[in-house]
DNA sequence: CTGAAAGCGCTAACAG
DNA sequence: CTGTTAGCGCTTTCAG
């Protein structure tokens, strides 16, 4: 039989479809005998419940969507992998959406997700299309975004991490430190951490903004151009490890001695980058823990009858900020 | 209204549900007037067709599943991103499955995918659970797997790429070249390319197998241990860029001069790794082109009435092998 | 403990 | 050009 249905099973087992459904969902009282008959029939037909028909009836899809700029970025790749693993363990499927940081793409995805009635969404995308969506009924958790009163936002202590990075550079003797960031903004906590520490030390801050959607080659060039034109710069704090790596490569080409003459710190500390550049000093985010928490919060909301209240429960928002660890590497001098 | 249905739209527009459905699908003859009324009603209700109900009826989900070991691996991360982009452009959604190379996980996923009636599957996972699945009715395309007569297998010219890498090392004067691979096997084309070239040059081949599912730290240790114990080795050909990076890092720690005293070539050539290690010599796969082809082949099969015949069409199998390019970098000496 | 019947939201004959 | 009817595969009252 090509696509056996519950009715086919019922026919073979000699019971009603209702009974088969009960066996499937383990609901109500069933005699052992009946169960056995039904199981036997299912085996015989290699029956698989049709998830679509189920969803139509239940109003639950057991699907969660992930919206990230691109999983080719190490941080998002790692995060997506952990999230998928945790969700899969809890019986949820994951739909992947790479927004590429195009608000328009993100909007299309939201439409799609609403159509598909996904139970939940986890987003790390940068356009705020979703969080501000008026009629979103899915549970929603954001990753490393601005705090909202309506949705949990899982993030690391960006401000503290940036302070650690900047302080480490200053302690190691750097005086002309440039911070490379994707997008400047007053609410950018890594930038704020950097600025505050620089100011407290009476050092002149310098920020290089390289844009988010740009190609990596363009970003690399923006960074090397800047460094070429600012020979007094003696240290770089990148808002992610890739920017730090660009700076490091520039130093190598220039035959600058690292860390003696030029120091570098990144941010994120993914396994992938640590494998490739074990010496890079960086601020490590506990990505796996963050993924775990995001899934916890999302599942709780999805399985509650009042998801929006669960999500907006202020009492635990403070738990959603994770501490960072500074990993010294050898691209920063010892103080 | 919380979740407007097609009937609600019909009621407001003063037409039958069928008519609304026709407008939605742009089928049959509709008067302009009717169309306008229906569109107006849809807008008024912010109506979104329920994709689930649609799928139940159509027997098409417009969903494709991606099964890869993990998108945290640069090659799969890049591949997944490109695939998702292309598929999304063609109106397909993507479900992400990270098998972690556990055959058991892969099997679970297959069950799930069958339940969800995905239209197609693209897999680069290593267990052969899917390709050998007897009753798979979805279209299937594999990435860099062994050739089958039943499904397209998109891959690069692994054999030729490995030959280029090995030859480049030999031409540059290397004599004790070790090949680092995940899993040894007779059908491993990168390994075969390496072996053939070594043999033709009367050089003794050495293969280090580091396993697939192992943690990156364990792989790194296996590699450094091997290199520590075999000081005569003067070059490494890694079956991926990460293995090559491990060797490179080892050389740096040992203060070996690269490429003078120690040479390294990797495989894959993803943008992500090129950003971080621009000097690494490697065999570049045309990942974006491969993704494009995979999607083409899959879509063709999904939209055909005889998907299995389309997939097994031998005449174009040869087109599914993509040429590689050797990128010299500076970790190999000039001949 | 089990079954009959209705319906989730949509589409596809078949009429008109 | 438009409406009526049935049904995709499952779950869920409501009866027995």
UniProtKB/TrEMBL annotation, chains A, B:
Task: Output this protein's name.
Answer: LacI family DNA-binding transcriptional regulator
User: PROSITE patterns, from UniProt?
Assistant: HTH_CROC1 (PS50943), HTH_LACI_1 (PS00356), HTH_LACI_2 (PS50932)
Q: What molecular functions are annotated in GO for this chain?
A: DNA-binding transcription factor activity; transcription cis-regulatory region binding
Instruction: Please list the residue ranges annotated as the HTH lacI-type domain.
Output: 4-58
Keyword DNA-binding applies: yes
Which keywords label this protein?
A: DNA-binding, Repressor, Transcription, Transcription regulation
HTH cro/C1-type domain residues are 5-48
> Does the entry feature the keyword Electron transport, yes or no?
no
- Mind telling me which Gene3D superfamilies this protein's record contains? 3.40.50.2300, lambda repressor-like DNA-binding domains
Note the SUPFAM superfamilies from the entry: lambda repressor-like DNA-binding domains, Periplasmic binding protein-like I
What species is this protein from?
A: Rothia terrae
